């Protein structure tokens, strides 16, 4: 049985408040919609001492430039971490891809590889990939 999220229920139902209280099986049967296959790529950087402010700005610019260039990349959000609980991760972002295949193609895309060539020596990164 397909998994239904509250977000899907609210988006698809004119009775969102009551629909969000329905048992998952009943809600799933009533919408007839397949679950989203979107995949979110989440990342955060700790900059190494060699990273200049110019390189940090270039990283943000290059990441935002992927939008419209990388097939299947639906959204890109990246910038300074505003959280006081960032544990040294001062830059991060989230990207939404249409599906797992689009994320995998992004990893090998020449634009992404060009960014990694100069960026990787300047960061300690953490990455998470999540299905919505």
Task: Break the fold down into its secondary structure elements and pairings.
Blueprint: H1 6-12, H2 16-19, H3 24-31, E1 39-47, H4 53-65, E2 73-80, E3 91-97, H5 100-108, H6 110-119, E4 123-131
Antiparallel strand pairs: 1-3, 1-4, 2-3
Short synopsis of the structure:
The protein is of the alpha+beta class. The protein has six helices and four strands.
Report the portion of residues in β strands: 25-35%
Unreliable stretches (pLDDT < 50, length at least 5) are 5-33
- Largest beta sheet: what is the strand line-up? 2-3-1-4
The ordered H/E elements are: HHHEHEEHHE
First-to-last CA distance: 16 Å
Q: Name the shape in a single word.
A: globular
- Rg (CA only): 18 Å
Q: Helical segment tally?
A: 6
Quote the average pLDDT.
Answer: 82
Helix content: 25-40%
Tally of extended strands?
Answer: 4
Query: For the report, how would you describe the main beta sheet?
Result: 4 strands, antiparallel
Q: Strand pairing plus helix content: what structural class?
A: alpha+beta
Structure write-up:
By secondary structure, this protein is α+β, with helices and mostly antiparallel strands. Residues 5-33 have low confidence and may be disordered. The chain has a four-stranded antiparallel β-sheet. It is built from six helices and four strands, in the order αααβαββααβ. The chain has helices at residues 6-12, 16-19, 24-31, 53-65, 100-108, 110-119; strands at 39-47, 73-80, 91-97, 123-131. The longest helix has 13 residues, at 53-65.
